Amino acid sequence: MEFEDLEPRKAAPKPKDLDALSVEELTDYIAALETEIARAKAKIAAKEAHRTGAAALFKTS
Questions:
Q1: Helix (H), strand (E), coil (C) string for 1-60
Q2: Which SS3 state, helix, strand or coil, does residue 61 take?
Q3: What is the C-alpha end-to-end distance of the chain, expressed in Å?
Q4: Residue 13: which region, alpha, beta or left (left: phi > 0; alpha: psi -120 to 50)?
Q5: Cα distances (Å, whole numbers) of residue 29 to 3, 8, 24, 26, 34
Q6: What is the C-alpha separation between 7 and 13, in angstroms, rounded?
Q7: pTM (2 decimals)?
Q8: Mind listing the pLDDT tens digit for each residue in 2-61?
């Protein structure tokens, strides 16, 4: 048995019900999602830069 087998599985979040939202609310929802996407992309870029720096530090010639 692996350690990961002991961890609880995360349930995928249910999609938000969009039927009840107005056009303005949908526009605001999209803007919020785009902001979150930009934040995630920035975090990915920072982690990749960190990984690249670490790889360069430990690179053997």
A1: CCHHHHCCCCCCCCCCCCCCCCHHHHHHHHHHHHHHHHHHHHHHHHHHHHHHHHHHHHCC
A2: coil
A3: 39
A4: beta
A5: 38, 30, 9, 5, 9
A6: 18
A7: 0.66
A8: 766 677 778 888 999 999 999 999 999 999 999 999 999 999 999 999 999 888 888 765
Q: How far apart are CA 33 and CA 42, in angstroms?
A: 14
Place of tokens 């690249």: 52
Token representation of residue 54 = 């670490």
Q: Token pair of 20, please?
A: 């009840």
Overall size of the chain counted in residues: 61
Distance from C-alpha of 41 to C-alpha of 57, rounded to nearest angstrom: 24
